[in-house]
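Record format v2
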Amino acid sequence: MKYVARLLCLIVTLSFAATAVAEQSQELFNFESEQQRRIYAQLTAELRCPQCQNQNIADSNAVVAVDMREKTHELVLQGYNRQQVLDYMIDRYGNFVHYQPPVNSVTIWLWLLPVLMLVALFLFQLRRRRNVDEDDSTSSEVLSETATKAAQQKALLSNELDHIIERYRSKKL
Amino acid sequence: MRKTLFYVPLVLFLGLSLFLLSGLFSDPRERDAVMVGKPLPAFSLPDLMNPEQVWSPETLKGEAFLLNVWGIWCPTCNAELGYMSQLRNEQGVRIIGLYYVLPEDPMFGEVFDLAKLQVDVQSRLQAFGDPYQFNILDRQRRLSMDLGVSGAPEHFIVDAKGIVRAHHIGDINPQVWRAKLAPIYQQWAGKP
Amino acid sequence: MIPELGQLALTFALAFSIILAIVPLMGSFTANERALLVAKPLAMGMFVFTLLAFCALSWAFYHDDFTVLNVANNSSSVLPWYFKLTAVWGSHEGSMLMWVMILAAWTALVGQYSKGLPLLMQGRILGVMGLINIGFIAFSLFMSNPFERTLPFFPVEGSDLNPLLQDYGMIIHPPLLYMGYVGFAVSFAFAIAALIGGKFDSTWARWARPWTLAAWLFLTLGIMLGSWWAYKELGWGGWWFWDPVENASFMPWLVGTALIHSLAVTEKRGTFKSWTVLLALGAFSLSLLGAFLVRSGVLVSVHSFAADPERGVFLLIFLLIVIGGSLLLYASRMHSVRSQARYEIFSREVMLWGNNVFLLTATLVVLLGTLFPLVHKELGLGSISIGEPFFNQMFYYLNIPFALLLGLGPWVRWKQQKAAPLLKPMALIAVFSLILALGTMAATQTVAANLALLGLLLGAWVGVSAIMEVYQRLQQFGSITQGVAKLQASHYGMTIAHIGFAVMIVGIAMTLTYSEERDVRMEIGDRVVLAGYEFELQDVYKLNGPNYGGEAAEIDVRRVDGRYVTHLHAEKREYTIQRMVMTEAAIHARLSRDLYVSLGEALPGNAWAIRVYVKPFVRWIWLGGLLMSLGALIALLDKRYRRKTTTGGAAYA
């Protein structure tokens, strides 16, 4: 009797387990930890499909992208860290395959140039303001007096021309 | 000083346009051939027609050869079979095929069938020309990945010691062969 | 016959553009009034003829005239009629014709709405627009003729429109985007006219402002729509890919944004003159560079048109003439112009300068990231790729000071601002934003120190500051109710656009941090649980569309506690003519999150690969973009821009 009850119990749990398995869908890629899942997601987003126009391997269905996804998964499960997987791929497909360029004496300008420009533009404004402060409005005008005079004359002339034409037009209409 | 500052944008733009001009005449998808100078990766794969025969880097050594990654599913590969047969027959180029198997699509009930593949390959080679000494079957595309292959057709020139000397992505036509691959092949094959 | 008429119309348009480029410009130097007056009708004529050409091509598409090569390559008889019409701009040739038509439309609009401008200025602006038109019409006519025939052997069926483009987004995304790109040609023409004339007063800035705002409004809408379209159409749940083509639209946007702010300084304070002119030239130059990148094939992109070096060379020469010429003119003319305005280090001027510096640095980052691989390779250093990791890193660091500055900027007065009076409101804003950010986080996720918290803090800082600034402004009018009517429309516009930016940062930070996705294998009846939602695959069946087959999946979504949420319908279409597979993702959108399901390939054993995403706050990204556009629209309605300046303009200076 006891055995029967136990057997029944077993059958019931087994069948429950079976239905649970059938209902809960399987992941295409299984991971042992959230950490692995994160690394995998990160890697497939920053590895570039070498055959496609411009897609990462997560978004591409090209054969080589599928193979690279599977390889990445395999390596991540084997305990490779992010850098090791990247090295594995770069060894085979070159730097082209990683969306983050390697840092060398040339690519360093990718980071340096924006910083330099940021600093230069702020310094420019500081200097410019100091210039304005130092030379009074008169002296700055003296410096380029001839230039401004010529420009003023020209402006006056064109203004006059505008005026005449404008009057003429309004009369005509 | 102030005056020259205003010319900076113009100079920058002109510099950039030089690169744009040269960029117009090169292929933006071209990758570096990272395999060049390295020995063939380790592998042990069966012959396509005669699966008992297993190929490895050791068994390929001794004579330089052109390794051609291809598949009958790839129209460009079929198209170049003729010219490559010519290379084999007229110039004595040793060409070995690396057969790149596409994954099967279960939607159409496809399963891998070696016997059928052998028949298909045989008839294709009869129709277009057979440049191959033999074909290596890369069913899982593992060797292809180790070689940095992204599709078919791709070509490698491997010297007698098993070192990769060139990697060409795309088809071989008379122009590509003469301009790019023939000099390298002749250098390592030691033939005129 | 009709296509030939279209070609003829385009040829006429070319003739008009040539006359437009020569006569009024010459007239402006010889003070020939008749020559100047002819600009407006010429601009109108040019527009009418490009419109006729465009209609002719549309007619060919609508009637499946496969004797026209462009129609045969990009349409088919089974395509629904509305997609036949949008297929007009689905190819390089057709989209170029649309570009030309829109450029001519802007030219005609400038002619129509420039009554307030002095005639001399008007003639010069239209003349410059004519010059630009020549280049593009000639390119369309000689290098990428959309009316080319396939005769005598024409196909009975076309090869269909690229399935990616068979979507409602396609109907308005490219027109809006082009309206934006090409709209900057107007600011460009204003700048060139000012350079020729040598007059850079605040009236110049006031005239240029509404046109710049209008172009920016369209560009913003175009980019947002493109992002939303990619999100729903590509099936990867991404909304920005840092693809060269996206970058090509982002760069003029960034410089255009800087221009709007810099124009404000030039209009209100008469300073930053040479800088503003440079930005006006830069915005359009980057639009042109973008057109070059997309159409020449120098870069690889998912979106680019088929490559053709010959076209590239033509466009590059055109770029050299237009950009190189304008920069040369700038360098030779601008160095004699000095700004006189004086301001302290803590002033609105410097705040806006800061805005410009960050926007320009961001532009440089995008430019470098887009073109550096090309430079690297041409220098013989090998191929590299630059993508998301690089851009995300750079924009992360740029955005923090930018947003902090944005919260402070609107409070700062012109000329000089004492720090003390701002301490109290700033502290208040800081406290408010802290509460708001932590509150939002606690309500939707768990509180943690991460990117999302940073985004929420910055967003709240910008948003709260914008709202409180308006409140404070209104109070200054005496009473709030009086103030509401008195405050300028452009001020409301600015506030709304800034709030839009805040909303967008929150959206981006939350989506990046809390998005979850699963790739699962599902049979019918299977379930997957993600972020508190349970997705159950109900059914999969065959599809039968007009020009596609494929499969559709029906999915029920419940909360984990069993509450029913929604029903989703995802499709995987196989377009029969182009043999291309497209995913039509199923999306359930709410302000707080999107549920996103895309159906993948069939797997062995009557199962399917299905990708499920939960993306919190992703809507906020586009909502932010919409608010920015709304802000621009409201600013455009400001009465100041519609004041008749005929007398004012002439009397000035």
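The two ends of chain C are 55 Å apart (CA to CA).
The beta strands of chain C are 516-522, 527-530, 533-544, 548-559, 564-575, 580-584, 586-589, 593-603, 607-616.
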